[in-house]
Write a structure and sequence with these properties.
By secondary structure, this protein is of the alpha/beta class. It has helices at about 15-25, 35-45, 65-75, 90-95; strands spanning about 5-10, 30, 50-55, 80. It has a 4-stranded parallel β-sheet, with helices on both faces. It is globular and about 40 Å long.
């Protein structure tokens, strides 16, 4: 049985580590520490990825930029945006985009 692949992008290494520990028994987990790294992983393994989870607030570029890139280049990937901040306006913009 082939496990579904999840790409989780967050600039906090500990969040990636704990997510991988929790999820990896049931899914293949790929991680990236930035939007740029996330795009590199998508370009290398985009056809294998079923779910993309991205933090919203990261240095350099925001999670909604990564989700927009994924939507344009890998429309079959389910995209999820997370945030620890109450930036309702930004979240609404990301969802509408």
């Amino acid at each position: 049985m082939t496990l579904a692949t999840i790409l989780y992008v967050d600039d906090e290494a500990m969040a990636l580590k704990y997510f991988d520990r929790l999820i990896s028994p049931n899914y293949t987990v790929l991680t990236a520490l930035s939007v740029a790294e996330g795009i590199e992983v998508l370009q290398a393994k985009g056809d294998e990825i079923s779910v993309l989870i991205s933090d919203q607030r990261m240095p350099g570029a925001s999670g909604n930029e990564l989700l927009k890139y994924a939507r344009e280049h890998y429309p079959k990937i389910l995209r999820i945006l997370t945030t620890a901040y109450s930036e309702l306006g930004e979240a609404i913009v990301a969802i509408n985009a």
